Amino acid sequence: MLERLKDFLYRHRKKFITTGIVVGGSVFLLKWIQYKLRELQERQAKEIGEKLRRMQHFECTDRTCNQTITGLAPALSDKLFERLNTDDILVKLRSNPENKLELWEQLKIVAFTRIVALVYAASMLSVTLKVQINILGGYLYRDTVEEEDGSTGRMAREQQISPNLQTAYLSMIQHFMSDGVYELIEIVRQNVGSVMQRYNLKQPLTLADTETLLWSIQMALNNEEASPARCIARYTLNPSLCSKMARPGTVLGKMFDETLDVLESVESRDVSLANVSNGFSLVVDTLADYYMEGDAAIKPAPENGKSNLNVECLANINNITISLAKLIPIVNGMAGKRVSVNGGTTLVPGTAGGLPTMAELSGNMMASMIGRFLQSEKLRTLGANVYETFCQ
Hints:
- With 392 residues, the protein is an all-alpha fold.
- The protein is built from 16 helices and 4 strands.
């Protein structure tokens, strides 16, 4: 019996060996597949968790960025008002001086310079801080990941972003809040003067004419070699000052160079140009209210809360004209000074039955413009792309 079994095994040894290999191989393959599946699932779960974590960090960074932009906007508006103050001109005009025409010409230039500079300044502040804070957010996220992964190499240590470094990096925008905005005002004033010399004070302007006037100023500025819409970093960052703070080879120096590269990129320029066009659209929309009222005054709002601008007004708006002399005080008031109350920014109390007056509407212009820019999908996409690039 034993001999038969041995003989049977010997005769079928190849079959047993082949079967063993196939079965063993199948078991091994099954175990390997199960291992790879678990590995894939763990990797996918980790990637999903990492993606959600990165998304939450970006949302937090984006909120911080928007709050910072909103917080600096009033100070920027005050800088514009300080340099382009029309109070002295208005006081002289009230005294009916002999050089009244000369004063009106000065007021014309200053008023339009202020509203145009406000558009560009709001856009430049939004784009620069959106880039800066998202670069910083990307660095901070990468530091957190490296620290959790136990990275202790020289490169990992060099990338650590200390609180002092964060402060130094973000303080670079202070150049724009002083010298930069004054440089912006000068280039805007030159181009406004060049365009406005073609318009006399008695010239009647429809809303379309006013829009063309603003568009002409915008095109003139876009054609400048130092265009504030295309050369953002020229005004918002000071290379000579930053080079002293951010020496080449340091983390701060690297971050400064990267910020310059992003601000000079085509994407940043496109966002800036879109913001400027959006800002001028807001100015025209605001002016349209005065045109539709005919006498440049605001009618009381109806009790039902609906707009008091009927279809007939909308249809005839391009037939309404306002002389440039009457338009100047409106434009001048749109970018006027606000009143600070309890550390915040508010407006002068209304005098028209509790409704907004010209002075009140002026204080809203910077806030409305910043709010419109921050809702822009292009600006948010720019921030998201910058964050995604620097957090990896």
